[in-house]
Design goal:
The protein has 117 residues and is an all-beta fold. The chain has one domain (2-96). The protein contains no helices and seven strands. It has a four-stranded antiparallel β-sheet with strand order 4-5-6-7, with no helix packed on it. A three-stranded antiparallel β-sheet has the order 1-2-3, with no helix packed on it. Strand 4 and strand 5 form a beta hairpin. The protein starts with a strand and ends in a 21-residue tail after the last strand.
Amino acid sequence: MLLYDNGVGNPDVAAAAVHSRTIRYTPDFDAMTATQAWADDDPQLRSPVAGDADRSAGGHVLRLDSTWVDADNPAAGARLRELDPARSPNAVWTLYMPPGKFSHRAAPISRFVGVPE
């Protein structure tokens, strides 16, 4: 189970320590538990609204921080990253959108639209 956790609203984490992450859990349906299998190694930043994480066919993860802020970037903007869980650092590439731009969703595709398989 892969998800984007923006960290907002967790009563167990102090507001100053809140950060967003992409995380994968392995569920055990018999025990009704989930074990953390992987979490990205991105520098800690916060995306207070939205965000998205999807696994590509090749096993990489496409992570979208819809609006993000940190000490070096107080202006909100969107950030898109391809992550490879098998390497460290995980980031393969990063695309920063201009400040003030919001992106709701990103999705990995195996071919360009209109190109036959």
